[in-house]
Amino acid sequence: MQKGITIHLAGVNAAETAHVLLNRLGELGRSAEHIDETAQKSLGNKETADLACEHSSQEGRVVIAGYPDACPSGESLHIILDPNDTPDFAAEKILDELAAAGVINLETGTYSPEEEEKVRQRLADLGYIE
Amino acid sequence: MSARRPVGRVLVIGLDCATPQFIFGPQRFALPNFQRLMKAGCWGLLKSCDPPITVPAWACMMSGKDPGTLGIYGFRNRKDHSYDAMFTANATSVKEPQVWDILSRCGKKVAVIGVAHTYPVRPVNGWMVSGFLAPDTYADFTYPKELKQELREKVGEFVLDVRDFRTDDKDRLLRDVHEFMENRFRTAEYLLQNTPWDFFMVVEMGMDRLHHGFWKYADPAHPKFMPGNPYESAMREYYARVDDWIARLAAIVGDETAILIVSDHGAKPMLGGICINHWLIKEGYLALKEFPTTRRRIEDCAIDWSKTRVWSAGGYYGRIFVNVRGREPQGIVAPEDYECVRDELIRKLETMTGPDGCLLGNRVFKPQTLYRAAKGVPPDLLVYFGDLSWRAVGLVGVDSIYTFENDTGPDDANHDHNGIFIMDDRTGRGGIELRDLNLLDVAPTLLNLFGIDPLPDMQGKVIS
In b/e form, how buried is each residue of B321-331, taking b as 16+ CB within 10 angstroms? Predict the structure, then answer.
């Protein structure tokens, strides 16, 4: 099972950043969900939402807790968004932290075998390698 | 450290392979806009990294860390100690933060175009157009992705590199190299005018292609130079056109922007190649199961690893690998003999003579003596044949250790250790020539221009 985690997201553009982050995690093949204030209310109260986050992350998901005063137990990241960052850039910074925590791997799949060969041949043609 | 008054913005114009002799030296071309920036600011030779190769050089420049610390020793690197697992160094391989990463995290808007190692593009607080390590323009070579289509509509198809570089059709190549340069600067011009930015960097690669393709036509010191040839002025005209673009970009950014012109390495005439694996065979270090009757890449030959102590890979410099027992899969050199083998090779390589019987002037280095750390899988030795006047040729099936033809096509220049540094930081320095500048100084200097302290583990100094 993959390693799960809860991300506490707060600050400017939190909802937009969570949206971008969900998409990026999906692109990376990671199961993720966002429990925002609306979802928290539908779950009942803050405590039940905390439990939902905890349960979901224990099942290997990345959970974005975007409701006020979220406090689930288990491994978590607390992110206060920088107001200078765009949601796209803020999401990438969070991905870097997730990679550092061993939750995701950002290093695979840079070239397909065909692309790798194309680049290798170009470098050989240019004289950098043989 | 950051006592200076931060400037508003910074423009970096990177010229891959721009070489000091054409810009600073007595043989310099008439380049009024380079000169204007030099006279207003400061300038000097910029010592490249070892090896002085595009990758890792730009990554070292933009991180302030040496190749060993980055674990990148060229475009192709050993993935592990097996014989054939290699990887192409690109953005994913660079683990250390680059200037644009640091500035992004400080809330600065950045725009970066064409830096060699930036594919696959990683998000920044702004815009990124990758360099020539993108496989093609079908790939997502821009950040954000939509920028690719915008550039296509506003500037035209982005040119990643010249096509069919190794050719005797010099008319076509010269046209393509110019178009490559024009396209790169038109892209920069468009983004300079249409995006908000604090830090802007564009790298022009055509100059490197020009040097490799046309050096012998322009440099009377090259043994193949022929006076009156049709390309005698090709380099002068190209540099003059780049000079025009510098004026054009400088006019856009205005007087409150610091401008740097930097290159990752210089260039010099290439006199020929040393067939290093052929030499290793002759010296008894390398054994093939069958000696090929035609020239062949060492990777395509059956190496008898049970009798091979050393093998090598070619390129602008030589990389030598020792077949160490317990490290390589079929290693035969005992670990306790490793240093003896390296020292013996250094002695032999440093006393290697050229076809005229004179010393070639080879320089040989152990990576551990060059770098603060030697991460990844470094070569066991790095060799500059004739201090880079000769390239390293890994082919076997040759009849001499010297070759004067390049199997991949014409190439008349090799990289040299010194590139260029010009900075007009708008403080009115008045044309100071600086000495002892190092490529690793550029990243701390750029951060300092923004009033940001360099990272503690950056290895360069602030140029001031």
Answer: bbbbeeebeeb
Residue B455 falls within a domain, yes or no? no
- Range 389-408 of B in CB contact (< 8 A) with A: 391, 393-395, 406, 408
Of B53, B91, B166, the CB nearest to A128: B53
Say if residue B151 is in the same domain as residue B24.
yes
Q: Please judge whether B88 and A106 are an interchain contact, meaning their C-beta atoms are less than 8 angstroms apart.
A: no
Both B276 and B341 in a single domain? Answer: yes
**B92 to chain A: closest CA residue:** A107
Whether residues B90 and A106 touch (CB distance < 8 A) is answered with no
What does DSSP say about strands B42-47 and B418-424: parallel, antiparallel, or unpaired? antiparallel
Question: Residue A35: which of A3, A1, A72 has the closest Cα?
Answer: A72
Q: Are residues B266 and B148 in the same domain?
A: yes
Question: Which chain A residue has its CA at the smallest distance from B319's CA?
Answer: A129
Say which CATH number the domain at B111 has.
Answer: 3.40.720.10
Find the DSSP H helices in B285-422.
338-350, 367-370
CA nearest A84 in B: which residue?
A: B107
Q: What is the pLDDT of residue B400?
A: 94
Whether residue B259 is found in the same domain as residue B358: no
- Which residues on A lie below 8 Å from B132 (Cβ)? 122
User: What is the domain count for chain B?
Assistant: 2
pTM confidence score: 0.86
**In this predicted structure, what is the pLDDT of residue B1?**
39
Distance CA B199, CA B192 (A): 10
Q: Are residues B363 and B442 in the same domain?
A: no
User: What average pLDDT does the segment A27-45 reach?
Assistant: 85
Q: Confirm or reject contact between B76 and chain A (CB < 8 A).
A: yes
Model ipTM?
0.89
Instruction: Work out the number of other CB atoms within 10 angstroms of the CB of residue B231.
Output: 18
Same domain, B218 and B71: yes
| B95 and B218 co-located in one domain | yes
User: Cβ B135–A118 below 8 Å, yes or no?
Assistant: yes
Query: Tens digits of per-residue pLDDT, B391-416?
Result: 999 999 999 999 987 666 678 899 99
For residue B284, give its domain range.
Answer: 272-410
Provide the pairing of β-strand A76-81 with B142-143: unpaired
Do B114 and B235 have their domain in common?
yes
Residue B2 in this model has a pLDDT that exceeds 60: no
pLDDT of amino acid B409 = 65
Each residue's pLDDT tens digit, B315-350 = 999 999 999 999 999 999 999 999 999 999 999 999
